[in-house]
Amino acid sequence: MKNLVGFISALLFTALAAVFISPMLGVNPIVLFVAFSFLASFTKTSAEGILHGVVVENWVKYIIMRFWKDNQFLLFAFNDDQYVINGKIVHIPQPGSLPEVVKNRSSLPATVSKRTDTDITYVIDEYTTSPTLIPNADQYELSYNKMDSVLGDHMSAISQAVADQMLYLWASSANVTILKTTGGTAAKVTAPLTGQTGNRYAFTYNDLQAANLAFNKANVPTDGRYALLDSNHYDQLLTSLSEGQYRDFSRYMDAEKGIVGKLFSINVIQRSTVVTTAADDSINAVGSALGVTDNIASIVWHKDSVTRAIGDRQLFQRPNDPQYYGDVYSLLLRAGGRVRRANAEGIVVITQGTPVA
Predict the structure, then answer these.
(1) d(CA 68, CA 63)
(2) What would the pLDDT profile of 260-300 be if each residue is shown by its tens digit?
(3) In what order do the strands lie in the sheet with 118-123?
(4) Lowest-confidence range among 60-64, 271-275, 326-330?
(5) 94 in the Ramachandran plot: left (φ > 0), alpha (ψ -120 to 50) or beta?
(6) How far apart are CA 74 and CA 42, in angstroms?
(7) 295 with 302: CB under 8 angstroms?
(8) Backbone angles phi, psi at 48, to 5 degrees
(9) Which of 18, 55, 143, 171 sits 20 to 30 Å CA-CA off 199?
C-alpha cells in the first residue's frame, strides 16, 4: 500500500510539473509528462544498476545515438543494416539489366528474356576500444554524467575510426571519378597540412560545379547530392564565393543535419578531415603519414550511390574486478560500407591540383 501511495504521489507530482513547465517551453504537457516519466525511470534504473555495473541495454542505445550524432554525414547514405547477416557480413541484391523498350511493336509474340540478378557481399569490420577502469572510490559518486564522460570518450574514438574508414572505403573503390582543384582567381595556396610542401590550387565553387556537371552527365538524380568537404577546402570555398553567392549558399544551412549550405543542388557538409591522396591520385590508407606530394581531398556523392551498414554493438563490463579494484568497461562496434554500383556512378573525389613549377 505504501508503494502504491508513493507511486501515485510521484505521478501527480510529475503531472503538475509538466503542466507548470510546458507553457515556458512551448511543449505539449502530455509530451513533457511522458518525457519526465521516462527520465525518472531511467535514472532510478541506472542508479540500481550501478551497484552491479551499468544497465547495458540503456548504454547500447546510447552508443548508437552518440554514433549518429558524431557522424551525421553517414545518415545520407544507403542503409544496408537490413542485409547484415550474423552481425558481420552484408549481402546486397543487385538487379539485372532493364527490359528492352520497343516503339510501335509490330512483331508478336515478343521475345521473352530472363533477368539475371547478382549479389554483392562485403564483410564489415570490428572496432573495439581498449578498456577503461573506473576505480572503486569513484563509484560512490557514479552518475549518468560520469558514465557519459567515460563512454563518451570511447564513442568519440570509435566514431572517428569508423567514419575515417567508411570514407576510405567509399573513395578508394574502383572507377571513382577523380577531379582536381583548379584555383580560380585564388590560384595557388600554400599546402596547408604538416608534411606537405609547395603550393596547391585552392578549392573553389567551380570545382563543386564540375562535380555537379559530372553527376548531370551520368543522370544521377538531383535530389540527394551531398559533399563532405575537408575544413581547408570548405574555408577556400567560402573565400571564392561572392557576397550574393554566400547569401544563397547559407540559406540552406541546417545545423540539425550538419548541413552548412547548398550549392549547385549539392548539400555541403564540412569535417576536419576527409581523405588524402598520393601523387598518383590513389587514396591513402587511414592513418598514413602525409607525404610531401600528398594532397587533401573531399568527397561528393549521391545518397543512393554509397552504402553503410552497422552490425553488432556491445558494451562490455566487468564490475568489482578484484585485480583492478573497480569496474572495467569497453565497447565493440561492427561497421562497414562500399559504393553500391560497380561503375561507381554518383561518387566523385575532388583532390588538390598541383601547379606546374
Answers:
(1) 9
(2) 999 999 999 999 999 999 999 999 999 888 888 999 999 99
(3) 84-85, 89-94, 118-123
(4) 60-64
(5) beta
(6) 29
(7) no
(8) -70, -40
(9) 171
Report whether 227 contacts 203 (CB < 8 A): no
Go through 52-90 and write b for each residue having 16 or more CB atoms within 10 A of its CB, e for each that does not: ebbbeeebeebbeebbeebbebbebbbebeebbeeeebb
pLDDT band at 166 (very low <50, low <70, confident <90, very high): very high
Q: Report the C-alpha gap between 61 and 55 in whole angstroms.
A: 11
- d(Cα 355, Cα 187) in Å, to the nearest integer? 9
- Taking a C-beta distance cutoff of 8 angstroms, is the pair 241, 228 a contact? no
Torsion sign (Cα): 152, 158, 161, 164: negative
* Nearest of 276, 182, 273, 294 to residue 228 by alpha carbon: 273
pTM for this model (two decimals)? 0.74
Residue 224 DSSP symbol: T
SS3 72: helix
Whose CA is closest to 228, among 349, 80, 78, 352?
A: 349
| β-pairing verdict for 89-94 and 118-123 | antiparallel
Q: Phi, psi (5° rounding) for residue 104?
A: 50, 60
- Residue 277 to residue 168: CA distance in whole angstroms: 10
Cell of 29: 504537457
β-bridge pairing 295-302 and 78-79: unpaired
What amino acid occupies position 114?
K
Distance set, CA 148 to CA 26, 54, 91, 154, 244 (Å): 28, 11, 35, 10, 43
Could you identify the residue written with the cell 530472363? 114
By three-state DSSP, how is residue 295 classified?
A: strand
| Residues 53, 30: Cα–Cα separation, whole Å | 33
Q: Which residue has the cell 567508411?
A: 166
Give the model confidence (pLDDT) of 241-267 as tens digits.
Answer: 999 999 999 999 998 888 999 999 999
Q: Per the structure block, which three cell numbers stand in for 115? A: 533477368
